[in-house]
Write a structure and sequence with these properties.
Number of strands: 19
CATH class of the largest domain: Alpha Beta
Number of helices: 14
Distance between the termini: 49 Å
Helix content: 25-40%
Strand order of the largest sheet: 2-1-3-4-5-6
CATH architecture of the largest domain: Alpha-Beta Horseshoe
Shape: globular
Structural class: alpha/beta
Largest sheet: 6 strands, parallel
Strand content: 15-25%
Number of domains: 3
Radius of gyration: 22 Å
CATH superfamily of the largest domain: tm_1862 like domain
Length: 424
Amino acid sequence: MKVFIESYGCTFNKADGQIMAGFLNENDIDTVDDIDDADIIIVNTCYVKLPTENKIVYRIQKLREKYPHKKIIVGGCMVEIDPEKLDSIAPDCSWIGPHQLNKTVDVVSSTYCGDTVREYGLSRESKVGVPKISDDDLVHIIQICEGCLGSCTFCCTRFARGPLNSYSIEDIKMEAKEAIENGVREIQLTAQDTAAFGRDTGEKLSDLIKEVANLDGDFRVRVGMMHPKNILNDVDEIIDAIKHPNVYDFIHLPVQSGSNKVLDDMNRGHSIEQYIEIVNKFRSEIPDLTLATDIIVGYPTETDEDFTRTVDFLNSVKPNLIHLSKYQHRKGAISSSLKEIPRDVMKSRSIFLSEIKDSITKAENDELFNTIQNILVVGKGSKGGFIGKTNSYIPVIVDNAIIGDFIQVKIIKVTSTYLVGEVI
């Protein structure tokens, strides 16, 4: 029996796919890189946005048409968020929900024998210290907690991932230690909200970062997305932890809107003033910090004035990386009961912000021209050369390098999305 796994969406979901592969491998079930070689296909779904939903639905339908004799198992967030649609497009497919990964072998074996098996629903099983199979020997993802403390009105992912469930620092540290000893160069600490880590267990994100960063070895730690409202009580200690030389000078802090009124409507739990205060603290202590943020364009209650406030926010704060999303209703989300703003208005706002985004990121990268950067080479480039990451987690393309090495480069070219370096 051979299984092909394809995972969509966030780093957390990618790790779920690695865990499924690990359980299968541990039980002598092969995972294959070529879908044509597989007896069973697992589609590990993402459901965060409508375009992603449409892509997933189309993919499942096409797989059933193209491979009518192969068994298909659907995993990931769609299983928990929209089982009705999943049942309508694939009534004969087995399911495995994101909280039931320890049942992967049973679901695969039963499906192979012709049964339709559906394992879903919440659990508190730990995802740390379990077997994983990754296609990247240098990067190791560790899920530090699952679920969140939020109730953002636009979000459907929280229905799939459930309430906060943090894993122990000691277990996370042990998994990181083993990965580093096996040659991993980058540890990615991931969650729906890393800043919520430990709120249910009495532990703290800052302590976790320090414990992992202080392990023996030459490596880097990347800390995943943090919700602004949950960083407030630990911001000074988190800054101190990220200042560790083994931690990337990088934070992903989604703001979503520059308007306090819209933030209230979104039930975000933080204000623009609080967000800016957090950012100013980080930048004063970590001058080379890379700040990534998310903006939702066209939330149903966003007026022209609210949009102007978002424009002003971006021009003032100048995040280094800006992820833009046009608002769309999501199943189960509170905001889905609201009337969407006209699509042409939303499109024009999105185009306007995209231009601002490009100008900000290009200007930020321009400042790095002719500088010397220490980079970790993490892989091959899609168009040739090799990709490295600076200490601030900015991608750099170089012609010649050895994957896994730390090297010094001079930046000889900049764009709005990456740098080009010359090895010194």
